[in-house]
Structure formats: structure tokens, C-alpha cells
């Protein structure tokens, strides 16, 4: 029996068992697993009406094939589960049907208690009406003797030399066929470690024959493992003629197996000749599990080939199975990338357009998430080859997708990551739209920052139009984090019509922290809106621009003057404070508060009388700001100490303003 087929069957049985544990009968995943196993069984049963898979101590035996468990995950999974259910063998007949395999999977996935209700696994399977698959009809292969007729390396080399002499001397297929078959069988039984050298030697012997005789010698050999290794070493012309013969004879299984072992370079050489002979290579590539969309063999295909090849994948994009749609998209994306790398842009264009449509139409968030990394790789290839129009087509779907209600947070993150990786400023409106989303801000800010000054104009426009306060603050933060690249664009927009935009731009300058902008901001001291001027002096305070803060003391707004004093506090000494007092004596509460804090901090003794006069002027005012000023003034007097301060406090203690009198009395008690 063909070892590759046995291995494939065991793999499918293991996959089917896993599917049966995870999905109910009738689920698409379960049905696909059954169909794949049925496909393998059909191929085996074409040559064997009955066969059994039997557990051995260290592997699995199927007819004349023995497979060791080793580290093969498929074998380990299957054997472990069979042993847990006391199953030593599974026998199949050619009458096996789709439902029989489904019943077998259900039995293998059953709990021990369910098996116990029927007695054992064999009885449970039979109770479901399955006769073509039998459990435990063959005793366990606890021991399997090795063939004592295995040839030594020297014997095989001698047999190959003998074959070579026969070919050279006679050149007749009839004389060579017997010795050739014996050598193949002998090599099949020895260690695979020597197969490479044996296949090289035998392919050299085969090449001694004319092409027609080569084909005659090879066309009827049994497709065992070593034979396939030998096939992979044959010349392209030999393989083309062999495949052509097998096609005429309807031996598609031989073609499929050989297609699966041919190296990509050789296959590329063969494709034009196979197409001339009208061989449907796509069918065999699919059956051989060769994903031509993901392999270098795509280089050998023409535009017409590609059209034929991609149609099944286009059809898969229309199925209801999200998993199939993902697989189709991944394959198409990889093919498109391959074509772009090969600079076959005309061939890549229709595929990329179809990918774009499929992405936009995809309704399952997880399906889109699974192809985002592949899309990023394709976009990078398009960018490298300056295919700007195709880049735009690849980005287009995400405008509509990002606007969908209920889009998962994971997919939104993937989209932000993809848009960021494009480096294309045209994606900025999409990235900015994510600022309205919760849970994404750090990723979105980082993505926008990567575009540098390209993002500034967009950010300013959004800042102009955004009504949501939290979004405006995010935009301010974004511009702040872009930093120096945004300074020039921000300066240009200082004359914006909207006062809040001018204010936010001034604030951003303060957050960026570049002192080089301070003189450019002086014109904002003439801004008609007090809120802008107030933000200006705060920014100057952050940037330590003393001259600007001093100029702001002449502003008509008390709030602006107060903020300017707050910024100047770290610069002023006692003498400078005294110089300021006359000009600020008749201003307003915000100024008085800041002056008192400065006098207190700088210990300006000469300001005691000024404080006393100020507090006298506030008598009979009982509002909260006046109370704060009275408390600050009295506190400053106590810290200035001295007889003059005490005399002022004694005088204030006599005030008819109870609040002021109480503050003064408490202060006198503290200083004694």
C-alpha cells in the first residue's frame, strides 16, 4: 500500500476526530473533515477492497506499511485517543460511505460513559448502522518483524551498477524493467538517509536511455516513497512526457503525486510545455495541495493562466463560510504581492481591485482581522514599486468599514495599525475619525504622530470643527506630541477666525515647549478675545518669557494681569515688586491675590503699608474673593513681622468689618 496515502488517511482521521470534538454533526467544519477523509479512502479503495489500520507498540500498521509514531502530531493524537477507548484496529471496506465516516468520528469523540451504554466502541458504531467500517476486527500488531532481506548499501550500489551496464549494453526497456523494479524495491526498504544519493545515481542511469524509452521504463512503476524521490530528480522533458502519457491513460493520481514533489524551478520550466500539450495543470496542483498562489511557480504563468487560476478563489469569496473567504483572500493577496514583486502590475491590478471589493463587503470582523497582516505586506510591496493608484484602492474599503456601528475593538486596532503602516497621508482623515472612539486613543495618537507635519493641517481643521470638548483636548494633545514639525503650520494658523482655535494653538506652543516661538506670539497680546490673551500669558509662563509677561501687566483685563503676575513670580525680587505696586494698586482681585502671594513669598517688608491700605479698601465687602484677599493679606503681615506689622494688625482688629477684625485678632494671638 502507498505509504503517502496511509499517512494522509491517518492525518485526516486525526483532524476529523478533533473536528468531531469541537463541532456537531452537520456543521460545515465537521462535514469538510468527513469529505476530506472520504476523498483519501476513495483513492485507497480503488486498489484495495479491504484494509485495516492496526495499532502496534510504537506506531501504526496498515497492510505492508508501518508508520512509527515518533514526533508526528497526527499519529500521536490518533493513537492516544484510540488507546484510551480500547480500540486496537479500524477496518475499512470499499463500500464505505460519507455517513459511515461521520458515524466513526462521532464514536471516536464520544465520552467513556456514552461508549459504556452500548458496551464498547465497536458496538456503538454498529448500532448506528455502519457495516463498512469495523472496530477491533483485527488483533493488535504488538510485534512486526523486520524484513531480513533488507539489502546493504554495498549491495544496492552493485545493483545500480549492474542496471547501468544492462542499459548501456542493451538499451532495451524489456531488459531493464526487471532489474530496475528490483532496485526500486530494495531501496524502498532501506534508510531514507541514503535516498538522495541513490536517486541521483538512478536518475543518471535513466538519462542514458532515449526519451521515449525513459518514459516506457517509468510509466508503470508503483508510486512508493522512494519512487517519488526519484521522480523529483528526473529531467523536465522526461516528466513532461510521463505526465502526458498518464493524462492519456487517465492515471491522474500518478500526476498528482509527482506534481507534489517537483521543485519550483523545474516546475517553472515544465509549465509552458505542459500547457502546449493541453494538460490541465491547475487541477493537479490543487489535488497535490500545491498553493500556486503562494509559490514562486506563479512566475511561469501568463495573464490568461492567472484568470483561470483565480476564478475558484473569486467564487470562494461569495460563500457563506467565513473561513473559506479568509483562505481565499489570503491566497489572492499573496498572489497579488508576488505579481507586484515581479513587476507584473497589469496582472496584479484586477486581483487587487477584487480584493478591495471583498474587504469592503466582508461582514465578519474576525475575517477582516485575519488578513490585515497580509494586506500590510501587499501595501508595502506596492509602495516600494510606486503603485500609488493601487495603494489607494487597497486603503479605500477602510473608510466605510471604520464607519460601521459595532465594529469590534480588536478590528479597529488592526485598522489603525494598518493605516499607520501605509505612511500615506491620504489615510489621515480615517485615523482622525478614530479619535471619537473610546479605548483607542494611545494607538491613534501614535499613528497620527508618525505622519509628522503632514498631520498638522488635518489636525487643525478637525480642531476647528470639533464640538466635543474631549475630542478637542485629544487634538491638542496630538499636536503637542507631534512637536517641532507642527510649529510652522501652527504659526500660520495663529490668525484663524475662531477664537477657540487661536487659543488652542497658543496652548499647544506652550505644551511643545520651544522658547523660539515666544517673540512670534507677541502679536497675540493684541487679540480681541481675552481668553486668547489669558492662554498667551500662561504659555509665556511655561516658556519663561519674562519680557512678554511684563508687557501683559498693561493688559486691560484683570485676569490677564493676574496670570502675568503668576508667571513673573519666579523672576521678581523684592525691589521689583515694590516698583510694581503703584501701578497695580487700583486693578482688581486677581491682581491683588497674586501680589499678596508674591509679597509673602519674597518677604517684601516695604509692602506692609500697601497691604494695610488694600485691606482697608476692602472693608464691608463680604464676597468670597474679598474674604480670600483679607485672609492672604493678614497672613502676609504676620510673616513680615515687626512693630509696623503689629500696629497695622491692631488697627485692623478695630475694624467694623467682622471678618477682617477676626482675621487680625487671630493673627495677633499667633505672633503674641
From TrEMBL:
SMART domains: EZ_HEAT
Signal sequence bounds: none
The protein's name in its UniProt record: HEAT repeat domain-containing protein
GO molecular function list: oxidoreductase activity
One Pfam family here: HEAT_2
Amino acid at each position: 500500500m502507498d505509504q503517502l496515502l496511509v499517512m494522509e488517511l491517518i492525518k485526516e482521521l486525526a483532524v476529523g476526530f478533533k473536528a468531531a470534538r469541537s463541532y456537531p454533526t452537520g456543521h460545515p467544519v465537521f462535514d469538510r473533515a468527513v469529505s476530506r477523509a472520504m476523498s483519501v479512502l476513495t483513492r485507497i479503495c480503488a486498489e484495495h477492497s479491504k484494509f485495516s489500520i492496526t495499532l502496534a507498540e510504537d506506531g501504526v500498521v496498515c497492510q505492508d506499511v508501518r508508520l512509527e509514531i515518533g514526533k508526528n502530531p497526527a499519529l500521536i493524537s490518533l493513537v492516544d485517543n484510540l488507546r484510551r477507548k480500547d480500540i486496537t484496529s479500524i477496518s475499512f471496506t470499499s463500500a464505505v460511505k460519507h455517513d459511515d465516516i461521520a458515524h466513526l468520528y462521532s464514536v471516536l469523540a464520544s465520552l467513556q460513559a456514552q461508549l459504556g451504554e452500548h458496551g464498547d466502541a465497536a458496538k456503538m458504531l454498529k448500532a448506528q448502522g455502519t457495516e463498512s467500517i469495523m472496530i477491533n476486527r483485527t488483533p493488535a500488531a504488538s510485534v512486526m518483524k523486520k524484513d531480513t532481506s533488507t539489502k546493504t548499501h554495498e549491495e544496492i550500489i552493485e545493483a545500480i551498477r549492474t542496471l547501468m551496464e544492462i542499459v548501456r549494453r542493451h538499451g532495451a526497456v524489456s531488459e531493464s524493467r526487471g532489474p530496475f523494479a528490483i532496485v526500486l524495491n530494495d531501496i524502498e526498504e532501506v534508510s531514507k538517509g541514503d535516498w538522495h544519493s541513490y536517486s541521483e545515481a538512478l536518475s543518471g542511469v535513466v538519462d542514458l536511455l532515449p526519451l521515449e524509452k525513459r518514459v516506457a521504463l517509468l510509466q508503470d512503476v508503483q508510486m512508493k516513497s522512494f519512487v517519488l524521490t526519484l521522480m523529483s530528480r528526473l529531467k523536465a522533458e522526461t516528466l513532461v512526457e510521463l505526465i502526458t502519457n498518464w493524462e492519456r491513460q487517465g492515471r491522474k493520481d500518478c500526476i498528482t503525486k509527482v506534481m507534489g514533489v517537483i521543485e519550483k524551478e523545474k516546475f517553472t520550466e515544465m509549465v509552458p510545455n505542459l500547457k502546449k500539450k493541453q494538460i490541465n495543470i491547475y487541477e493537479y496542483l490543487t489535488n497535490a495541495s500545491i498553493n500556486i498562489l503562494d509559490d514562486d511557480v506563479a512566475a511561469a504563468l501568463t495573464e490568461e493562466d492567472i484568470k483561470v487560476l483565480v476564478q475558484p478563489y473569486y467564487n470562494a469569496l461569495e460563500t457563506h463560510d467565513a473561513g473559506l473567504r479568509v483562505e481565499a483572500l489570503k491566497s489572492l493577496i499573496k498572489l497579488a504581492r508576488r505579481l507586484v514583486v515581479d513587476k507584473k502590475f497589469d496582472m496584479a491590478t484586477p486581483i487587487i481591485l477584487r480584493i478591495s471589493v471583498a474587504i469592503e463587503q466582508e461582514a465578519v470582523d474576525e475575517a477582516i482581522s485575519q488578513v490585515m497582516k497580509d494586506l500590510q505586506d501587499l501595501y508595502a510591496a506596492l509602495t516600494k514599486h510606486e503603485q500609488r493608484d493601487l495603494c489607494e484602492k487597497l486603503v479605500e474599503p477602510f473608510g466605510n468599514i471604520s464607519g460601521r456601528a459595532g465594529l469590534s475593538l480588536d478590528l479597529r486596532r488592526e485598522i489603525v495599525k494598518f493605516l499607520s503602516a501605509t505612511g500615506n497621508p491620504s489615510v489621515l482623515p480615517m485615523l482622525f475619525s478614530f479619535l471619537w472612539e473610546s479605548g483607542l486613543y494611545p494607538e491613534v495618537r501614535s499613528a497620527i504622530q508618525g505622519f509628522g507635519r503632514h498631520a498638522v493641517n488635518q489636525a487643525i481643521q478637525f480642531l476647528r470643527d470639533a464640538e466635543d470638548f474631549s475630542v478637542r483636548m485629544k487634538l491638542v494633545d496630538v499636536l503637542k506630541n507631534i512637536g517641532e514639525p507642527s510649529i510652522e503650520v501652527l504659526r500660520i494658523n495663529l490668525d484663524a477666525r475662531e477664537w477657540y482655535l487661536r487659543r488652542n494653538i497658543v496652548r499647544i506652543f506652550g505644551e511643545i515647549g520651544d522658547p523660539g516661538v515666544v517673540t512670534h506670539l507677541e502679536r497675540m497680546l493684541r487679540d480681541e478675545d481675552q481668553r486668547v490673551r489669558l492662554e498667551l500669558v500662561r504659555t509665556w509662563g511655561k516658556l519663561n518669557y519674562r519680557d512678554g509677561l511684563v508687557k501683559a501687566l498693561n493688559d486691560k483685563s484683570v485676569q490677564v494681569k493676574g496670570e502675568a503676575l503668576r508667571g513673573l513670580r519666579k523672576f521678581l525680587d523684592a525691589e521689583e515688586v515694590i516698583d510694581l505696586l503703584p501701578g497695580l494698586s487700583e486693578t482688581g482681585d486677581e491682581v491683588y491675590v497674586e501680589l499678596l502671594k508674591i509679597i509673602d513669598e519674597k518677604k517684601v517688608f516695604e509692602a506692609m503699608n500697601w497691604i494695610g491700605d488694600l485691606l482697608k479698601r476692602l472693608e464691608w465687602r463680604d464676597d468670597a474673593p474679598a474674604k480670600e484677599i483679607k485672609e492672604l493679606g493678614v497672613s502676609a503681615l504676620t510673616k513680615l513681622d515687626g512693630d509696623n506689622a503689629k500696629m497695622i494688625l491692631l488697627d485692623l482688629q478695630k475694624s467694623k468689618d467682622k471678618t477682617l477684625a477676626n482675621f487680625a485678632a487671630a493673627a495677633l494671638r499667633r505672633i503674641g
